[in-house]
Amino acid sequence: MNYSIGDFSAITGISIYTLRYYEKESLIIPARKENGRRSYAESDIAWIQFIKRLKDTGMPIREIQKYAKLRAQGVTTMADRMEMLARHRAVLKEEIGKLEEHLSNLDDKITYYRTEIRKCTNLREDRRTAEVSCCT
Amino acid sequence: MNYSIGDFSAITGISIYTLRYYEKESLIIPARKENGRRSYAESDIAWIQFIKRLKDTGMPIREIQKYAKLRAQGVTTMADRMEMLARHRAVLKEEIGKLEEHLSNLDDKITYYRTEIRKCTNLREDRRTAEVSCCT
DNA sequence: GTACAATCTAGAGTAAACTCTAGGTCAAGT
DNA sequence: ACTTGACCTAGAGTTTACTCTAGATTGTAC
């Protein structure tokens, strides 16, 4: 099976513009029909989804480009590609760690806000003061 | 204690350009001395670090701007700010989840590469074939 | 046989978040 | 007095990753 750019866009959820852009950047280069139109292969679906994954994990297009270039060179570059992925894995792992730390910090802040707001509310309910500026 | 923009930049690791940009965007507005120069307060350090955290967790500057505006309005906006953070927390939590899924996928791929490469090596060592194109 | 829908290319435009330049002020050291 | 270094503003330039426009072509439906 092979797909026109419109179909491929619909299947993958990536705009036609972006697909053409990715081609210009040598990420994914579909075959062409006799009339010059793009013809994406079945296997391109998995490939573009992998590209998506790399992007979603923060890999810049220049990096993905390098990976794509290796891939295009065939099996002899498998080790290099694995190397790239292993490196990227480490970066990703670290980023997740950072985000988790940020999350816990955010939780602390939210907890703090919650208690402060409760204090305010209590004060108002107790009528001990009419001022709103109770929590600073 | 208060700091010149140069000192504040050195302390926080944020470039002078960026600090001025953040001011233009109303994220952090330092006091001014009589001569018109910026004078950052001690408390601005914690504030900019919090801004950094929001940025690192993917909050766009427009959002941070809203938060800063609320903060500038004082204690009466605490509940709104908490609301914002709670929402952002949820987004962050989800993003971490996605990244973890991506990580595990990446691991699978790396494992696959590793075994494929091993197969190749074994084949070569066994002299069963001289071809390199063993793993596709 | 003509309208239309989808495609093509080259190149311009956009948005976000900086980053830098030019031209000017001002206080401190020599 | 004068140079130097840090600071000021307004506005231009950069980078990344798209996104869109204009003008041409092509295959299909009526």
UniProtKB/TrEMBL annotation, chains A, B:
<protein>
    <submittedName>
        <fullName>DNA-binding transcriptional regulator, MerR family</fullName>
    </submittedName>
</protein>
<dbReference type="InterPro" id="IPR009061">
    <property type="entry name" value="DNA-bd_dom_put_sf"/>
</dbReference>
<keyword id="KW-0175">Coiled coil</keyword>
<dbReference type="GO" id="GO:0003677">
    <property type="term" value="F:DNA binding"/>
</dbReference>
<dbReference type="InterPro" id="IPR047057">
    <property type="entry name" value="MerR_fam"/>
</dbReference>
<dbReference type="InterPro" id="IPR000551">
    <property type="entry name" value="MerR-type_HTH_dom"/>
</dbReference>
<dbReference type="Pfam" id="PF13411">
    <property type="entry name" value="MerR_1"/>
</dbReference>
<feature type="coiled-coil region">
    <location>
        <begin position="82"/>
        <end position="109"/>
    </location>
</feature>
<dbReference type="GO" id="GO:0003700">
    <property type="term" value="F:DNA-binding transcription factor activity"/>
</dbReference>
<feature type="domain" description="HTH merR-type">
    <location>
        <begin position="2"/>
        <end position="70"/>
    </location>
</feature>
<keyword id="KW-0238">DNA-binding</keyword>
